[in-house]
Amino acid sequence: MNALAKELGLSPDLTFYDVYSLDEPDLLAHIPRPAYALLVIFPLTPAWRRDREAEDAALGDSATYYRGGPAGNTGPEPIIWFKQTIHDACGSYGLVHCVVNGPAAKHILPGSFLDKLRTAALPLEREERAKLLYDSEEFERAHQLVAGLGESSVPVLRNRERLGQHFVAYVKANGHLWELEGSREGPLDRGELDEGEDVLSPKALARGLKRVMRLDADAGGNDLRFSCIALAPRSRESVNGPA
After folding, report:
1. Which of 87, 90, 98, 176 is catalytic?
2. Nearest in space to 79 (alpha carbons), one of 70, 69, 91
3. pLDDT tens digit string along 146-172?
């Protein structure tokens, strides 16, 4: 993800860190705070599937509300959300959602792909935004460039139901926690966060990652395929390898 972020135009002032625990301070101490975003991978459990379907039915097409509006708009900073229309690219969409929203957006390099994408996307409707990414050769090239950098073997999709996982971005913007996933029906406002709280604060975790984990546990599930990385300022002690 660090390689992809660099390729797309995020400043090296920010980096992704592995999250080893959600509760133990010693295992979170290597992540500088505030953390701007969490990029989480979830197993698509039956309980979460039902929850998603109910929320999406109530949400409907809300993209117009999150347009950037006219130049000089003095209202809250808009949430930039992209409907995913590129197959097997949910991780790349998740990364984009992490870096174009909230304080991380201030670390986008001028003239970069992310800079041009964010500017172009602000005034667009939902379908136009989706097409903007779908038609981008630069986005596709960056995605393909880093897709083979990992060391894991490619899984055989014999059982798509079991292997099904989704990347979800959690970002603090405008004092609220936002859940951003391209396969949903729009951005989801998970509630207000206090000024000193970030995406790794207990309240944010309870309303985001832990909420989904609790759905599965309460339904009697035991799927443990939950993992996340955090986007935060780079420290002098940061490991140079990609997250």
Report:
1. 90
2. 69
3. 766 666 665 554 544 445 688 999 999
